[in-house]
Design a protein that fits this description.
- The chain has 324 residues and is of the alpha/beta class.
- It has 2 domains: 169 residues, D-Maltodextrin-Binding Protein, domain 2; 151 residues, D-Maltodextrin-Binding Protein, domain 2.
- It is built from 13 helices and 8 strands.
- Strands 1, 2, 3, 4, 5, 6, 7 and 8 form an 8-stranded mixed β-sheet that branches.
- The two termini are 19 Å apart.
- The N terminus is likely disordered.
Length: 324
């Protein structure tokens, strides 16, 4: 039910409100409820980090679920109900308030400083990037991948045994990192990390590019929690996996099977512990920062370009849903 609500609300939000990023007003209404600092919800990609936090703070009730599932659940939360703390990525707290405001509810006002960051990239078995670079010398990596999705590698002068070009960003209508990876892919198509819906609406080839990227690797082939996890298990399912540097580092020696590329224009993912301003999760913030650093995440000061605005991310979610 929540998934259906999210799809409908997202589509209505896109069609009625998303023209450019300065059209949505957030923050009207009554004061948000206080946070429950004993309950923490984490996005799936940070499950290991949250396991470490939970082990260090046994009194904490930790839940792990896909970021967009949490987004829809909190968007439907009745006004006055106490929200949990949310370890997620930017700009999901603002996306939440935009959805709630659109539905006539009060924004929760969850916020917080970035705790850690990691660049978004692509991993592939050895040799793929060399062939791709030669075949698409004048095209950006994600643009080339979308154009080539579903074609035979041999058509690009690659090894015939590689069969088809199979890129995947993941389940971008459920996963926070997958949606961010899709945002990075669109930046690669458009050639800029700063864009809005109007940037792609004017391009007649864009929709077909998205559909190829969306449909080449069906969800049923994503047996792992991420495209990289799937490629580790079954390289026959995916051979170009959207990922992050932190996820690759967490693989340890298993990552030696793959090459990594962080294509231009660069885009970084930032983790935030989202809580109302009146909450004081200081010890939890410290524990989360330590766990993220131990898991291979970098300082937020390293960020060169963040993912797009909340309004654009909501538009991207709807775009992905409609490209089935």
């Amino acid at each position: 039910m929540l998934t259906a609500v999210g799809l409908i609300v997202g589509a209505l939000f896109l069609r009625r409100n998303v023209i450019d990023d300065d059209d949505v007003v957030v923050g009207q209404g009554t004061e948000p409820p206080a946070a429950d600092v004993s309950e923490l919800v984490c996005i799936t990609e940070l499950a290991g980090v949250c396991d470490a936090i939970g082990a260090a703070q046994s009194e904490l009730d930790v839940t792990v679920e896909d970021g967009l599932v949490t987004l829809d659940r909190l968007a439907a939360l009745d006004d006055g109900v106490t929200p949990p703390l949310w370890l997620t990525v930017q700009p999901f707290p603002t996306m939440l308030d935009e959805l709630r405001t659109f539905e006539g509810g009060h924004p929760l006002g969850l916020g917080g400083d970035a705790l850690a960051a990691t660049p978004l990239g692509i991993a592939a078995p050895t040799g793929r990037f060399e062939v791709l670079s030669a075949a698409c010398a004048d095209a950006r990596t994600w643009r080339c991948l979308g154009d080539g999705a579903g074609r035979q590698w041999s058509e690009l002068d690659g090894d015939e045994s590689w069969k088809t070009v199979r890129p995947a960003v993941g389940k971008a209508d459920r996963s926070a990192v997958a949606l961010a990876s899709f945002a990075a892919a669109v930046a690669g198509y458009l050639g800029t990390p700063t864009y809005t819906r109007s940037s792609w609406d004017a391009d007649p080839d864009f929709t077909s590019w998205v559909r190829r990227l969306r449909r080449t690797v069906p969800y049923t082939s994503l047996s792992g929690t991420t495209p990289l996890a799937t490629m580790v298990q079954r390289s026959s399912a995916i051979d170009m996996a959207a990922t992050t540097r932190a996820e690759l580092e967490a693989l340890g020696t298993a990552a030696e099977r793959f090459e990594a590329k962080y294509p231009e224009p660069a885009m970084w993912l930032e983790v935030v512990l989202a809580a109302p301003a009146e909450a004081e999760p200081g010890a939890l913030t410290d524990a989360a920062t330590t766990a993220l650093t131990d898991a291979g995440w970098s300082s937020p000061g390293d960020v060169t370009a963040a993912v797009p605005s909340a309004t654009t991310m909501l538009a991207l979610r709807t775009l992905w849903q409609e490209a089935r």
